[in-house]
What does this fold into?
Amino acid sequence: MNASLTADEFDAEVIAAFGRHLLVRAADARELRARPAGRRLSIVCGDRVRCEFDRKHDELLIVAVLPRRTLLARANLRGESEPVVANISQLVVVVAPLPQPDWFIVDRYLCAATAAGIAGAVAVNKSDLATNKVDDDELAALARAGYAQLACSAATGAGLDSLKALLAQGTNVLVGQSGVGKSSLVSALLPEVRIETGLLVREEEGRHTTTASRSYPLASGGTLIDSPGVRDFAPAIEQLDSQTLGFPEVDQRASGCRFQDCRHMQEPGCAVVGAVEAGEMSARRYESYRRLRRRYEDLIEARGPGQRHRR
Ligand code: GDP
Ligand code: ZN
It folds into this structure.
């Protein structure tokens, strides 16, 4: 608690967000509806905010967003990046034997996490499907890059204890391709919850451009932030760190490159290419890196000079 605040001013955490309709939890555990005080304030679930009670209009206003420890952003339809969820500590990518993983998408999520300072992990769901398995070499490459992983089944409950243990600290999100079982896992983790967007949204608005994100405490410890829009957001490429693009394998080796500003594409004396040739970095992961590098550079070029950090 900040001693300089008056009774009508306090800090709180955003525990649900549907566009500009927000629900905050104050330090005394009260849950209150609030709205941003200005058009320019962009607030997402997980944000810590400064609130001010407006006695005249009898409503709670959010006047500032406190500094974010982490932020995940998506690319919107205009190609701009917009915040999805703030202050999470772990992103778990769910994969399954069916639908078969698109490893480039898996890499993109993990890169977004790593570049944002968020731990990345992989949950291999549908472990009950005996005849179909997720490629072990791919999983091994991700393990070598430092990403935790586990196998589970939302259908049989196998491995759910491991998943709960993985989520037991900090604030988490589950992401992944459609059909891998994210909703089923969320239901297994939060059996008592029925997601109620009606709490925040008045019927007449009926817009479907945003989805309600909500923060749930897990009985087994930790917090899960979930919404359909969080589960399969497309990470904003421009948020990636320009040298490593969020690849731990590149980060580990970049200091060994001949050129300090090496892009690890066709530069001579590149330690990353050397690691791929020596079989120390997965050639498939490196191909993902090249693909992401080209997209990143196309994006920067399209922005033109001085536009690089436009939000
Ligand atoms: P989402 O699109 O990632 O949210 O995936 P859903 O949770 O909607 O699941 C997609 C389909 O996979 C549904 O038919 C589920 O019943 C099925 N499914 C989810 N988890 C499992 C699992 O562990 N094993 C099997 N066999 N099927 C599952
Ligand atoms: Zn290099």
Summary: The chain is about 25% helix and 25% strand. Confidence is low (pLDDT under 50) at residues 195-209. The longest strand covers residues 9-18.
